[in-house]
Amino acid sequence: MREPGVLVRRIADSTPADREREVDGLRAIAILGVVFGHWIVTGVYAGADHWQTDSPLRRLPDYAPVTWLLQPLAVFFLVGGYVAARSHARADRYRPWARRRMIRLGRPIAALLAVWTVAIALLADFVPGDTLHTLGKLVLSPLWFVLVYAGLTALTPLVVRLGRAGPVLAIGTVALVDLTRFAADGPAAVGWVNVLAGWLVPYSLGVLWAGPHRARIERLGAPLLVAGAFACAGLIRYCGYPVSMVGVPGEAISNLNPPTAAAVAFGLAQCGLALLVRAPLRRALSRHPGIWAAVALVNLSAMTVFLWHQSAMLAVTSIGIGLGGLPGLGTAPDGLPWIAARVGWMSAFAAVLLALWAVFHRWEAGAGRSGHRT
Torsion angle, CA of 368/166/164/209, rounded to 10 degrees? Predict the structure, then answer.
């Protein structure tokens, strides 16, 4: 690897003057926020006969508001809509454009699936099936996000044509689905409509941000933050939605799986905050080349970081379980001491993730380079 100072200077020198660094910064914050959040709320430990997962939030319900800092997915979809719309506007034809973007998403997925297919096949004769199921579920769980993102990317021309009607229709769909599920006691399966509709809300805002009404959208930062926050609080307080913005084992309703009206309102508040901080974020990234270099590297391989972060956590956790369990590692998440100890393991998770990145980021980098990365 290059000397850090040399790498920082090279990235700074190669960054175009008109690069929208705040867009890259917002995406890096969103990706790293999701990674850190998963590492905090996911405990893997050896049960009676197989590895199991649990969340510290199940035993600490009063700390559910902390999840408001650990679930920044709406910001990623906001930036994704913005980048896709800008890219599509420069493309001559839809099919080559869509093909390039699907390849950028597909290559990192193919690497993950290839490695874990071989790993599970090798482990099958030595590891209980339920443990393999736990491993597979954790490793593959990020794929839902990438598949939804890919679907919305493919629909970008339609979202562009919808214009300002896009977020309105998406919000209305989410509200109707929730009324059907909860007020009318409809089938739970209808909730999966919100997997697309819920994330279409921030995505379509990003598309609008990239369009001719950019200045108007940027002025919506404060209104979106306030309205989204009050709507989310009202839905939690008066409509019975969970406080946690991530899934908690044992809860009857998850705000995230599938997205609920409360999650969408929360996402609108996040989008508003992102629009408010974009200018100071741009100035900070322009003044601090070291931070900008880190942001640029995350953006060059955002999908690699996202797809392999659970594998990094499992690699370190397996050592803890092999040693009989250590505080915050390989033990059941049973309270605040576990969380405090877990924070201490973050550097180990990050080190393994960096090693995985060094091996697998080429799969994403090889998908091509043009403008902002997906």
Answer: -30
Q: How far apart are CA 22 and CA 275, in angstroms?
A: 10
Please tell me the total number of residues recorded for the chain in this structure. 374
Does the pTM of the predicted model rise above 0.90?
A: yes
The three-class DSSP label of residue 163 is coil
Whether the Cβ atoms of residue 266 and residue 331 lie closer than 8 Å to each other: no
178, 184, 189, 193 alpha-carbon torsion, rounded to 10°: -30
Extended beta strands in the chain, E state:
43-46, 51-54
CB 205 within 8 A of CB 161: no
CB atoms within 10 A of CB 188: 9
> What are the beta bridge partners of residue 259?
256
* Residues 34/71, Cβ–Cβ less than 8 Å: yes
Neighbour-count burial for 291-327, b at 16+ CB within 10 Å, e otherwise: bbbbbbbbbbbbbbbbbbbbbbbbbbbeebbeeeeee
Tokens encoding 77: 């979809």
Longest dimension (CA), the chain: 61
**Per mean pLDDT, which range of 110-124, 265-279, 353-367 is the poorest?**
353-367
* Tokens linked to 292: 């900008």
At residue 185, the 3 state secondary structure works out as coil
For 7-16, 141-150, 278-287, 336-345, which range has the lowest pLDDT when averaged over its residues?
A: 7-16
DSSP state of 273: H
Q: Where are the domains of the chain?
A: 4-365
Residue 153, amino acid: T
Residues 229 and 270 sit within 8 Å (Cβ to Cβ): no
